[in-house]
Design a protein that fits this description.
This protein folds into three domains: 1-178, Alpha Horseshoe (Serine Threonine Protein Phosphatase 5, Tetratricopeptide repeat); 180-251, Serine Threonine Protein Phosphatase 5, Tetratricopeptide repeat (Alpha Horseshoe); 258-341, no CATH class. Strands 1-2 form a two-stranded antiparallel sheet. It has 341 residues and is mainly α. A hairpin with a 2-residue loop joins strand 1 (323-326) and strand 2. It has helices spanning 8-16, 63-69, 73-84, 89-101, 109-121, 125-137, 145-157, 163-172, 181-193, 197-209, 217-229, 233-245, 253-265, 269-281, 289-301, 307-316, and strands at residues 323-326, 329-330. The longest helix is centred in the N-terminal third of the chain and has 13 residues, at 89-101.
Length: 341
């Protein structure tokens, strides 16, 4: 069953804001995770009486998710509704997902909550996690962090390892009477050991700040590298900064620049800003004012204005006469267009 991650970022931002000077707080949500059952490869079926009877082996093949995967959300809903009438918990959870995200239907978190509750009643662990998400954020139900935590604990008991990450986030939330950094660290450790890069990033931050665990910069760097190698953009930026400064890991400006460029090329404004600084200073890369401007303009277009770097660019181009696109800053040679994202 797919998992709803985008709304959870709100909660992650609230919680992560308590962790100290992290460069970025949340990660781009991954695509939905497919269910354990095989998805259908056939064309979507038309809704109507006897819909399931027209689908061969419909008790073995998840036609609803097959339609969902190809973007046929209306057809996915029609098939899932028929399966839901048979108390199919996976189908009920999929309907909840469609309503939670407004796919093929108007976005209605209250309707999503109803379907998730049905799926939970029928034993679906992913629906339990999704319902916890709604309770944590107060979407479609009254906000109740304690209820969210209970649901997550139940999901964990059912074997959902990633539930540890979201339970850890609740333990960090300043609005919760459950706030407990040590408990959060334990949850993040379990999830990170299972390969959850968001958990690795969060745990790295706790080790760096000494919250819930003894401060250990080396361990923080190790975990940050784990998350960075897993594709976590915020971790890539943080890891680059740690390598550049030699915090918990050998100092290496070239490697730091490479990590920043990786995140910058993926569109991370903080990485674009830091990479611009390196090009301007000639640290870890060959000094190149034009490249500095190119990357800084991308960061600035994303809303990250840095008066300090603009002042440095102005000094570096004080005698030039071509508009750079920055207030009061000109350059002799025209800039190359910003790289496309």
């Amino acid at each position: 069953m797919p998992t709803v991650r985008a709304p959870r970022l709100v909660l992650a931002l609230v919680a992560a804001a308590t962790l100290g000077p992290a460069v970025a707080l949340a990660e781009t949500p991954p695509p939905p995770v497919p269910p354990a059952a095989p998805a259908a490869a056939a064309a979507p079926a038309a809704p109507g009486p006897g819909l399931l009877d027209r689908l061969p082996d419909n008790d073995k093949i998840d036609y609803a998710f097959g339609a969902f995967q190809r973007g046929y959300y209306v057809e996915a809903l029609a098939i899932a509704v028929e399966r839901a009438k048979l108390n199919d918990a996976v189908a009920q959870s999929l309907i909840g997902y469609l309503y939670a995200n407004g796919l093929g239907v108007p976005k209605k978190p209250e309707e999503a909550a109803v379907w998730y509750q049905l799926a939970v009643k029928n034993g679906n662990v992913k629906a339990r996690v999704e319902l916890a998400n709604l309770y944590a954020l107060g979407l479609g139900v009254d906000q109740d962090l304690n209820k969210a935590a209970d649901l997550l604990r139940q999901a964990i008991d059912q074997g959902d390892v990633d539930g540890n990450y979201w339970l850890g986030i609740i333990y960090l939330d300043s609005r919760s009477d459950l706030r407990d950094y040590a408990a959060a660290a334990k949850c993040f450790t379990i999830a990170a050991d299972a390969g959850n890069i968001d958990a690795a990033y969060a745990l790295a931050t706790l080790y760096r700040e000494g919250q819930g665990v003894d401060q250990d910069i080396g361990r923080a760097a190790q975990l940050m590298g784990q998350a960075a190698r897993g594709g976590h953009q915020a971790a890539q930026v943080e890891y680059a900064i740690m390598i550049f400064n030699g915090d918990g890991i050998a100092k290496d400006s070239r490697t730091a620049a490479a990590w920043l460029k990786l995140a910058a090329e993926a569109g991370n404004p903080v990485a674009e800003n830091r990479l611009a600084r390196l090009y301007l200073a000639g640290e870890g890369v060959e000094r190149n004012v034009q490249e500095a401007l190119r990357w800084y303009r991308r960061a600035r277009a994303a809303g990250l204005v840095d008066a300090g770097i603009e002042e440095d660019i102005a000094k570096a181009t004080a005698t030039d006469d071509v508009d750079t696109g920055l207030p009061g800053v000109r350059l002799t040679k025209p800039l190359a267009p910003p790289p496309t994202k």
